[in-house]
Design goal:
By secondary structure, the protein is an alpha+beta fold. It folds into two domains: 154 residues, FAD/NAD(P)-binding domain; 175 residues, Polyamine Oxidase, Chain A, domain 2. A six-stranded mixed beta sheet has the order 7-2-1-11-18-17. A five-stranded antiparallel beta sheet has the order 13-14-15-12-16. It has a three-stranded antiparallel beta sheet with strand order 8-9-10, with no helix packed on it. The chain binds flavin-adenine dinucleotide (FAD). The site of flavin-adenine dinucleotide has 37 residues, from helix 1, strand 12, strand 16 and helix 10.
Length: 362
């Protein structure tokens, strides 16, 4: 990393785009503070713990991947990244068994990739070394709502509580609707572009049900009509726990159906998705526990033109933006956008020649 790179950097958002930036900048000698409004890293690479009481009154729990079910790797650089030691240990190819009558998985995209033992494992692996050495510090449950540019550098705050010190640069690795308000005071043209970037919503039904007999032989179904886009048996994924006698269902509704039902009450959506699953399976599902989750920003609406590998970076302002909506789409798009941002940060910016000293940090 050339010496024009700022030294002390705040990364807002610890999904794959943010974790990728944090890891690379820490490895290049920067001091990185990464924050997320959630309780840990992963973002839409998400796994949730379900808790319920069974018919015998016993407390039970199970974990299900309720965001991206897996992802593909088509770009050679992304494929090479997935082979790197600490990352390779956290990701496995997943030969998903597709149900009869499903839409096919895109064979040209190669096998699905699956972080193990849970979806956030990939982001945890990226942050592991930096947090162990102190090059990366973290703040969880920190929903950044104010960025202030001061002569000493950037301040980042949530609900009036600022992170200690000032930062030479701030990187936003967020869905566009969440980046826009933070950008408005500093880069109104970026805020405008972010606020109109289209993202598709997704209603997700997840839960546990008594395992049917005979047991399904498939792990993934992609119905070709109706409200459901994906039906997954989470316990059939590699490296996942399987509670005895239970199927761990994760069901993603189609984007069009999710958009139509976006503001409907969760109980109503749950009942409709449960009914749709029963119709698709051809019989009632003996649920023990089920909940729904609404993803307002699940995936960027694709242009069909493949990865675009973009990011926004202002060297003069020390402000950058990356994320799947700039990288193309999906997990690979998030990583490609982070790479694009890191590459732009290496370019000498206006008034900052390659020989310039690093901006001061406190
Ligand atoms: C249901 C579903 C299905 C999907 N299916 C696929 C698929 O099949 N294939 C595929 O490749 N991809 C899929 N995806 C998309 C994939 O998960 C995302 O493209 C990718 O994970 C995005 O990474 P990111 O780092 O850009 O953003 P994110 O993972 O969204 O990370 C952004 C982070 O910012 C945090 N944040 C937001 N606002 C703030 C704030 N103000 N302050 C602090 N933190 C904040 C969030 O908590 C989040 O952790 C799916 C996603 C969902 C939800």
């Amino acid at each position: 990393m050339p010496p024009t790179t700022p030294q002390k950097i705040a990364v807002i958002g610890a999904g794959l785009a943010g974790a990728t930036c944090a890891q690379a900048l820490a490895a290049a000698g920067c001091s990185v503070h990464i924050v997320d409004k959630a309780r840990g890293p992963g973002g839409r690479l998400a796994t949730r713990r379900l808790e319920w009481t069974d018919a015998q009154g016993q407390p039970r729990s199970a974990r299900v991947d309720h965001g991206a079910p897996g992802f593909t790797a088509q770009d050679p650089a992304f494929q090479a990244f997935l082979q790197q030691g600490h990352v390779a240990a956290a990701v496995r190819p997943w030969a998903a068994r597709l149900a009869a009558g499903s839409r096919p998985l895109r064979a040209e995209a190669g096998p699905l990739q699956l972080p193990v033992p849970d979806m956030p494992a990939l982001c945890r692996a990226l942050l592991h070394e930096g947090t162990a050495t102190g090059a990366i510090t973290t703040s969880w449950s920190f929903a950044a709502d104010t960025l202030t540019r001061q002569p000493e550098g950037w301040q980042v705050a949530a609900q009036g509580m600022a992170l200690p010190g000032h930062f030479d640069a701030v990187l936003l690795a967020l869905p566009p609707a969440q980046a826009a308000p933070l950008l408005a005071a500093h880069k109104p043209e970026w805020a405008q572009r972010a606020s109109i970037a289209l993202m598709q919503p997704c209603w997700t039904l997840m839960g546990v049900a008594t395992r049917p007999s005979p047991e399904p032989t498939w792990s993934v179904a992609r119905p070709d009509h109706g409200p459901l886009a994906w039906v997954l048996r989470n316990e059939a994924k590699p490296g996942r726990d399987a509670a005895a006698g239970l199927v761990h269902w994760v069901v993603h509704a189609r984007a069009s159906w999710s958009r139509q039902h976006l503001e409907h009450p969760a109980d109503e959506v749950k009942a409709q998705l449960q009914a749709a699953l029963a119709r698709w399976l051809g019989g009632a599902v003996p649920w023990q526990h089920a909940v729904v989750h609404r993803w307002r920003y699940a995936l960027p609406a694709t242009t069909g033109h493949g990865p675009v590998r973009q990011a926004w970076w202002s060297a003069a302002g020390g402000l950058g933006v990356c994320g799947d909506f700039l990288g193309g789409t999906g997990v690979e798009g998030a990583w490609l956008s982070a790479q694009a941002l890191l590459a732009q940060m290496q370019q000498p910016g206006p008034g900052a020649g390659a020989e310039s000293a690093l901006p001061p940090s406190d």
